[in-house]
Design goal:
Chain lengths: 359, 284
């Protein structure tokens, strides 16, 4: 019985400690005006807490309480359920494009008044997320690229096209992302061999793209969910080619690892996150100030330099040098994922994809 | 030690706490999972409470049947490999001095403290072309050039057997220690070789323990989802991997729940069959 009571007490203690940690969010400065902002936990939250939020508070007098959100769609589920109860665990959240569309289906996002976003004109069109009726659901927060990466010891010459994945000479040498909704390989195949992602408009078109993609299978050594697993193998040359994040590959190369990231002539895959406002939030005014602040070219340039993300505003309005811009982006027209498909056909695509790689 | 059947309600008191824990942390979540497995999936959204069989219907296909079959086959293979390796090992261990036993058991216990991630990464390095064991074979002149042994079925099996082996030894150890040594001595006196005595006396005497161990390792291996991803190709992914995909990446909780319920039912069914077969064998 003694051991039991100790266990219970430690359990209680741990529970209390956990609860108090949750109850003590990182408030930067106690002020009258405040805003809860959700960003991806870990590297993103740390970088934003250090480089972005204190400056924002200084400039606007609005205190930011940053909330670590889980990746994947768990945060969307939490926001949705909280909104049904009239609560907002965060006022503004950084959301993936697929999550934006899913939130639209339940009117989760408060439409953004573009009249209040003076810096909105700087944005590239593809970073304004709209409801079908034209109301603005979200504004591009950050974007990043997935590119063609190679080990420089194994490949002396950088490949120039995604078609390298299909080259029989690369048998058993590729590392690719394991999910249809994060690898965006359907878009890559469509752009490389079928003239563009419009080839994915119909189910017949998608099936044709799947058939072409199936030819890659013998070349794939690793279908990865865990980024560390591929990064390690790429550095050692164990798996010398694949798709990976442009920014992280650049950092690895800067550390002296024999890796390179190439923007193929068909373009890199550009994925992005949006700022979106929960309909349960009472802080609409502050949220608009925040989103407007984040759309400033100088802030986007800071994000590129400090966080390694690609700007969501037009390049010419930023003061990024060629070298700084090349470190996070490219002038080649990117492959923009067909997020709509992952909402309207998600189960069918997932089933076909799983059968393709597992079968 | 005196053992009396409990007389009063108070005698059952020590059971209340574990029973409450089991209810809160196992029965309730499992009940929720069964309920969710009948909910209606809303594609491109979430799910709504309902009572539909769609999720089970989607699972009943040749594709998922194949994945389920592979998962069961893998778990059975791991269980058999573990018991075949662990039985002679544990038998010899029990015949050693106390000191040696302690060292071995501590070493085995320390493997249990390793997480699946560490085990997976360690084996993928050992099996790699650039830093793996084949480099040693090349240095010794046995192989002409280093090659990658992962991803492959052999790599998955090795990793999983490595992970389950300590459990197997720890389950077999008490039974083998308690085994009456006079049994084997009698067999030896009657002229059986050590090997023959082992197979005709020790193994049959441990029948029930061996069955229980096989079942335990089987269930343990069935839940594995990280090692098949780290060491195998997609065709070596278990049903648990696909369940994780649905739950975490597709936010399709109803389908993930249905797959999990199905997996539990099949497992329970197989265990029940094994137990029944064991009883019949005993009666005969």
């Amino acid at each position: 019985m003694i051991t039991t009571s100790i266990k219970r007490r430690t359990l209680l203690g741990a529970g209390l400690a956990g609860a108090s940690m949750l109850a003590m969010p990182s408030v930067l400065r106690a002020q009258d005006k405040s805003l809860k902002v959700g960003v991806y936990g870990g590297y993103f939250k740390t970088s934003f807490d250090k480089n972005i939020f204190p400056e924002f508070t200084k400039a606007t007098g609005i205190a930011v309480e940053s909330i670590a959100e889980p990746t994947g769609e768990a945060w969307l589920v939490q926001l949705e359920q909280a909104a049904r109860a009239g609560q907002a665990p965060a006022d503004v959240s950084m959301m993936s494009q697929v999550a934006m569309l899913k939130g639209q289906s339940t009117q989760l996002w408060t439409p953004i008044d573009m009249a209040k976003i003076k810096n909105g004109s700087n944005l590239l069109d593809r970073f304004v997320n709209k409801y079908p009726d034209g109301r603005v659901a979200g504004i591009g927060a950050v974007s990043w690229y997935i590119t063609l990466v190679t080990n420089t010891d194994v490949y002396k010459e950088a490949p120039t096209s995604w078609a390298a994945f299909w080259d029989p000479a690369n048998a058993d040498k590729l590392g690719l992302l394991a999910l249809v909704s994060n690898s965006f390989l359907l878009e890559v195949t469509a752009k490389t061999f079928f003239g563009g992602t419009n080839a994915l408009d119909t189910e017949e078109g998608i099936l044709k793209v799947f058939d072409k993609l199936a030819e890659v299978k013998p070349n794939v050594r690793l279908w990865y969910r865990d980024e560390a697993q591929f990064e390690q193998s790429l550095k050692s040359g164990e798996i010398p080619m694949g798709q990976y994040y442009h920014d992280v590959t650049g950092l690895a190369a800067a550390d002296g690892n024999p890796v390179r990231s190439t923007f193929p002539k068909e373009g890199g895959i550009q994925d992005s996150g949006c700022w979106a406002l929960s309909r349960a939030s009472q802080k609409s005014e502050e949220a608009h100030v925040f989103i407007d602040y984040m759309c400033q070219p100088s802030i986007q340039a800071t994000l590129s330099r400090k966080v390694g993300t690609s700007p969501t505003v037009k390049r010419e309005v930023t003061d990024l040098t060629d070298k700084e811009f090349a470190a996070v982006s490219s002038d080649i027209e990117p492959i923009v994922p067909r997020y709509d498909l992952y909402q309207s056909k998600s189960d069918w695509l997932n089933q076909k994809w799983t059968e393709l790689i597992v079968g | 030690m005196r053992r009396e059947p409990p007389q009063k309600l108070g005698d059952y008191a020590p059971l209340f706490f574990p029973a409450a824990m089991l209810t809160i942390f196992f029965v309730v979540p499992f009940g929720t999972m069964i309920a969710v497995s009948f909910f209606q999936r809303l594609q491109g959204g979430f799910y709504t409470p309902a009572f539909v069989f769609d999720n089970y219907a989607r699972f009943l296909s040749a594709f998922f049947g194949g994945v389920l079959g592979f998962s069961l086959f893998l778990a059975v293979t791991v269980a058999i490999c573990c018991v075949v390796l662990a039985l002679p090992f544990t038998y010899m261990l029990t015949r050693m001095s106390r000191k040696v036993q302690v060292v071995w058991l501590v070493a085995l216990l320390s493997i249990l403290s390793l997480s699946e991630v560490i085990i997976g990464f360690a084996w993928s390095t050992l099996f790699s072309r650039t830093a793996g064991i084949t480099n040693i074979l090349v240095a010794l002149g046995i192989m002409s050039e280093a090659k990658a042994l992962t991803p492959s079925f052999g790599a998955v099996l090795t990793g999983m057997v490595y992970q389950a082996f300590p459990y197997t030894v720890l389950v077999l150890f008490p039974a083998l220690v308690r085994l009456d040594p006079t049994l084997t001595e009698a067999a030896r006196t009657l002229g059986a070789s050590p090997l023959k005595a082992f197979f005709t006396v020790v193994v049959p005497a441990l029948r029930n323990t061996l069955t229980a161990t096989l079942i335990m390792v089987f269930i343990f291996a069935l839940g594995s989802y990280l090692l098949p991803q780290l060491l195998g190709r997609p065709q070596h992914w278990t049903l648990s991997v696909l369940i994780t995909d649905q739950a975490i990446y597709q936010s399709n909780m109803p389908f993930a729940a249905a797959m999990a319920v199905f997996l539990v039912l099949v497992t329970l069914g197989l265990v029940a069959l094994t137990v029944i077969a064991g009883r019949k064998g005993e009666a005969a």
